From TrEMBL:
Species per Swiss-Prot/TrEMBL record: Leptotrombidium deliense
Protein name: DNA replication complex GINS protein PSF1
Compartments, as annotated in UniProt: Nucleus
Keyword annotations from UniProtKB, A to Z: DNA replication, Nucleus
Cited function: Required for correct functioning of the GINS complex, a complex that plays an essential role in the initiation of DNA replication, and progression of DNA replication forks. GINS complex seems to bind preferentially to single-stranded DNA.
Any one GO BP annotation for this protein: DNA strand elongation involved in mitotic DNA replication
GINS subunit domain boundaries: 50-130
Length: 198
């Protein structure tokens, strides 16, 4: 039946509500595109035949309309599938930065990886033009802080870390520190530090 594969793509996305990205279903996308081409070709043949016979056969026109509706359905589903995947990728960029985890990267198509790299470059270029050319990292401070200083635990041996005021902190595994949130948020996102909730 027309549109079943396209519906399956959307159902697959709806099952996965936690913003993760499942493996790209390239074979299914290709089969949907082939179905769309077959529907288009069949409609073209019937329209040409109808013109040559100079008749307005209601049965043929109904079949053409049904095929056209199926064609539009497939198109909508493909656009929705790809759009939702790109929005999830965009969300991951803001959450994790420019480096995707390997389990996510293996689930992407070549075009999605290319789009992600372009998006990262565009975002970096934009951020570097802000603040009179000095740049601002917009991925930090995505939520308003409740406190300016937080207690953090180091998860790995990182070494010396210089703060904005020039002081250094030695990050060794399992050491705890009381630091400005603005200084550690990036390291928390990278998995070097974790916030200690008290």
């Amino acid at each position: 039946m027309f549109g079943e594969k396209a519906s399956d793509l959307i159902k697959d996305l709806l099952r996965n509500t936690n913003q993760t990205i499942n493996a790209y279903r390239g074979e299914d996308v290709q089969q949907i595109l082939e179905e769309m081409n077959a529907l288009f070709d069949a409609n073209q043949r019937d329209v040409q035949r109808n013109r040559q016979e100079e008749s307005d056969n209601a049965d043929i026109l109904s079949v053409i309309q049904v095929r056209h509706a199926a064609l539009l359905w497939n198109k909508r589903c493909l656009i929705s599938y790809h759009y939702e995947r790109l929005m999830r990728l965009k969300h991951l960029r803001w959450e994790f930065g420019g480096l995707l985890p390997n389990d996510v990267r293996t689930n992407l198509s070549e075009n999605e990886i290319s789009w992600f790299n372009s998006y990262c470059n565009n975002l970096s270029n934009y951020m570097s033009t802000l603040n009179e050319g000095r740049g601002i990292d917009l991925t930090l401070h995505s939520k308003a802080p409740k406190r300016l200083y937080i207690q953090v635990r180091c998860l790995v041996d990182y070494g010396d870390f210089e703060l904005d005021d020039g002081t250094t902190a030695m990050f060794s595994k399992d050491s705890t520190h009381y630091l400005p949130l603005s200084q550690c948020e990036k390291l928390i996102h990278q998995g070097i530090l974790e916030q200690i909730i008290t």
